[in-house]
Amino acid sequence: MQARRAHPRKIFSDKMLGILDSGLGGLGVAQRLHELLPAYDLLYFADQAHVPYGDRPAEELSALFASNVAWLNAAGASLIVMGCNTSCAVAQRFGWPSSAVPILDLIDAAAAALQQRNARRIGVVATSATVAANAYRRAIARRLPDAQVWEVAAPALVPIVEAGAADTPQAYDAVAEACARLPEGLDAYVHGCTHYPLLDRHFAAILGDRIPRIDPAAVQAERAAAAARQLGLAEGRGGVRYVTTGDRELFRDAIARIVGGEPDVRAAAEAAA
Length: 273
Ligand code: DGL
Hints:
The chain has about 270 residues and is of the alpha/beta class. The protein has helices spanning about 25-35, 60-75, 85-95, 105-115, 130, 135-145, 155-160, 170-180, 200-205, 215-230, 250-260, 270, and strands spanning about 15-20, 40-45, 80, 105, 120-125, 150-155, 190, 215, 240-245, 265.
């Protein structure tokens, strides 16, 4: 299936870095990147018309990824920083979309974070599509060939986060159900979906202090900051803009809740008008 999306005019700064996710998860990457590069302009693109990605077939996810990358290219992004594991998982398996600018893989950033810790028994909770692609297992095997990896799919979690229900007993129960499928004796747990750090308090309560919890967003933001400098990308005004293919008002409320402030939010179709 080919997803088509009207392309934006270059209404944004042409020095900006693009961050891409299906919804709210990549906000953690954007926040960290803004902390590391406060003078750069960021454009956050959320494909909320299609969230959750995790339950969609790989062919559709590849088409959506290509369409989102084309949108960010047309908008003038100088670098695309992935805030979506699911898109990366499918791309690792079936190919990366063509792009005029580099795309930074999030799953390799996660594997690098695990390598830094020399983890040996690794638990990953991720979306169904990420687990079906065996994306974490393969990425970790390239860096830590002796490590054992357990991947657990948790399709209930992204809809809970998108609905603003992270603080509910239902959220706790869904995290508990996923964690119950991880084995004992892990020496690292990694959030294999960027939405899950928004449920981290439940993971902390259930997994306890003995298992370090890794959020790949931190390493991804560090890599993006290094890439921006390496590519010689110019600083902008330090603005952050948000675009969604879904409901603009709901997205604005969610960003205000998660990030704070008065976010500058546009609808993707409006930006293309
Ligand atoms: N936040 C994305 C990820 O890291 C996608 C989640 C979804 O839409 O299912 O995989």
